[in-house]
Amino acid sequence: MAEETVLSASHLKAGYGHHIEVLQDVSFAVHSGEMVGLIGPNGAGKSTLLKTLRGIQEPLGGEILLLGKPTRAYTNREFACVAAYLQQTVEISFGYSAREIVMAGRYPHLRWWEKEGTKDEAIVDACMEYTGVSDLAKRPMHMISGGQRQRVLLAKVLAQQTPLLFLDEPATGLDIFYQEEIFRFCRELCAAGKTVLMVVHELSLAAKFCSRLMLVGQHGILADGAPEAVLTPENLSQ
Questions:
Q1: Region at 203 (left for phi over 0; alpha for psi -120 to 50; beta for the rest)
Q2: pTM for the model
Q3: What percent of the chain has pLDDT over 90?
Q4: Buried (b) or exposed (e) across 122-135, using 16+ Cβ within 10 A?
Q5: CA pair distance 66, 54, nearest whole angstrom
Q6: Cα dihedral across residues 152, 180, 87, 55: positive or negative
Q7: What is the pLDDT of residues 148-187, one digit of tens each?
Q8: What's the chain's Rg over C-alpha atoms?
Q9: Where are the extended beta strands (E) located within the chain?
Q10: Which of 33, 75, 123, 209 is the least buried, fewest Cβ under 10 Å from its Cβ?
């Protein structure tokens, strides 16, 4: 049976305003269970592409389909129920506990008048246990380490229970142990049927854990395929 296409872009243009095109004529499809790493130099447009796919930035042209439906046809709440996004820098107000942050991942599934129920509590508990942060539940976020913080934020996006995860440099700034841990979590999620599209700077980790790499540069996708096919001297020299 053919793999399900979770996300696709067709002749996509992305950038800022109508005058700054960072990416031009980008087309690709991502299938269920893939762990796709977006690699490339600073300023190439990796985060811009991720934000555009997630709907945070309006595309300047082309079309994006999410589960076969144009992204422009989704409401914000509907989008958040099918795609979770972990941004590069997360500002958290003083005093929020780790558990409160993870519980925020359940809000797209609740109506404005609803409070979280036993199902939501169970999902939050399971996600925190999976990422190894259950013992931090009552700790304020400003009082935990960088590695612990990233695992809490990963638990939050997992609590959204979406088939697709967008992660913008989830391991940046962490020591190698925590970097590998984040990548290992992601690979396990993909093995369980989720799809991950992530911006990656650590090429050794991208090669080790990602099933597919997309090299972003020169206003487009320079290479797309298995890590060994993308991470060649010829491609990287571009």
A1: alpha
A2: 0.91
A3: 76
A4: ebbbebbebbbbbe
A5: 9
A6: negative
A7: 988 999 999 999 999 999 999 988 778 888 889 899 999 9
A8: 18
A9: 5-16, 20-31, 35-39, 61-66, 69-70, 83-86, 164-168, 195-199, 212-217, 220-225
A10: 75
